[in-house]
Write a structure and sequence with these properties.
Largest sheet: none
CATH architecture of the largest domain: Up-down Bundle
Oligomer: single chain
Strand content: under 5%
Low-confidence stretches: 383-390
Order of helices and strands: HHHHHHHHHHHHHHHHH
Structural class: mainly alpha
Number of domains: 2
Number of strands: 0
Number of helices: 17
Mean pLDDT: 86
């Protein structure tokens, strides 16, 4: 297993997520004040980045399948950081949101897990699961390291230079990744499908792939609700907002509990069974959060939900590598990431409607728990042999 190259791709994951996905919330108030803007137009830029991450992720995955990893990494380095830096010179909030959304989408498409997991899997024939698990251990540090670092930078140099520094860091690591990944080790086992549509259509003829997609969509829906409602739910239960925010940060750190022991876990059980267990933990965590009226229950939520979410992310990549056709892996991981982004957006929207109808924050979390449990149930049996699915 090429530990050095995995470390570079792990660093890419950290800075790519940290540059805008996690850092935006830290800078939002300063950006709004400086540009004289409401929050709505700025969050529209963040939403645009999410959507483009999925759309362009499909393009980047296709490029990986056809040409190797150097091309999408180099394209991401050339375009994403430059557009993010350009956004920092905007004085109009709408122009800032547009440029930020485009730049963030390019960075997400070329530096997020749907691409980096595909790359490390191809770099590590015979030990793909260990490689993906190692990559996601690196990724677990994105939130606990980059959020505080963004806050320190915001205080010292302001939001504009903070975004510029983050973009430059992403550009440097993307260039390093494009130069150090051995393209010959990334050759697919067969020629990719004639088009992304053909790749998706062919994959969906298999029941195991359909179940993976449905389970992943349900998990993304539920986890996004949990993340959005974690602070309001604890506050509604009587915990102070400052304590709730600290506990929410600790939940991010607790993701390491789900990632560090994965090697030992996968020596004992299949990725499918481990993924089911991780989803059940997320569902239990959502229920604990729904009724977190005291610190004991809230800490239990931090540990259980953090461990479950931390394990589910690499396990979905590992299981996807097992069931998706290897010659279209990058394309299909990009397509899956696009659908996950849609589910992540629908989750808080649907939960918000439920909360508004019931007047109870916990009702949205019960919806999230039920949805994630459904995602676990979809994986209830080992799929039959591939030849039986045609």
């Amino acid at each position: 297993m090429p530990h050095g190259r995995i470390a570079i791709l792990g660093l890419l994951t950290v800075v790519a997520y940290g540059s805008w996905f996690y850092g935006f919330g830290v800078l939002l108030d300063d950006i709004a004040l400086d540009l004289g803007s409401g929050v709505g137009v700025l969050t529209a830029g963040y939403a645009l980045a999410q959507v483009l991450t999925g759309v362009l992720g499909l393009v980047a995955g296709r490029a990986l399948d056809r040409h190797g990893a150097a091309l999408p990494f180099a394209a991401g380095a050339a375009l994403g950081p430059a557009v993010i830096i350009a956004s920092t010179f905007a004085q109009n909030p709408a122009l800032f949101a547009l440029a930020f959304g485009v730049g963030g989408g390019v960075i997400g498409a070329t530096g997020f897990y749907h691409l980096t997991q595909s790359v490390v899997a191809r770099l590590s024939p015979g030990s793909e699961a260990r490689a993906i698990a190692a990559l996601t251990v690196w990724g677990a540090f994105a939130s606990p390291v980059l959020i505080p670092l963004t806050e320190v930078s915001r205080r010292l140099v302001g939001w504009r230079d903070t975004l510029r520094l983050g973009a430059l860091a992403v550009g440097v690591v993307l260039v390093l990744s494009s130069l150090t990944v051995d393209r010959s080790r990334l050759a697919a086992s067969a020629s990719p499908s004639s088009s992304p549509v053909a790749a998706v259509r062919e994959a969906l003829t298999r029941r195991d792939v359909r179940r993976l997609a449905v389970s992943a969509l349900a998990g993304s829906f539920g986890a996004s609700v949990l993340i959005v409602l974690q602070v309001p739910a604890m506050a509604a239960g009587g915990i102070s907002r400052s304590t709730a925010a600290s506990l929410a940060g600790a939940r991010g750190v607790a993701q390491l509990f789900g990632r560090l022991p994965l090697g030992r876990v996968l020596r004992r059980v299949s990725a499918r069974r481990a993924l089911r267990a991780a989803k059940v933990m997320v569902a239990i965590g959502a229920v604990l959060l729904a009724f977190s009226a005291n610190l004991v229950v809230a800490v239990a939520f931090v540990v259980v939900a953090g461990t479950g979410i931390g394990a589910a992310s690499p396990l979905e990549g590992i299981y996807a590598r097992e069931v998706l056709p290897p010659h279209d892996l990058g394309t299909l991981m990009g397509a899956l990431h696009l659908l996950l982004g849609v589910a992540a957006g629908l989750g808080p929207l649907m939960a918000g409607l439920v909360v508004d109808l019931t007047g109870r924050t916990w009702s949205g979390l019960v919806l999230a728990s039920a949805t994630v449990l459904f995602g676990a149930a979809v994986l209830k049996e080992r799929p039959p042999a591939i030849d039986d699915l045609r």
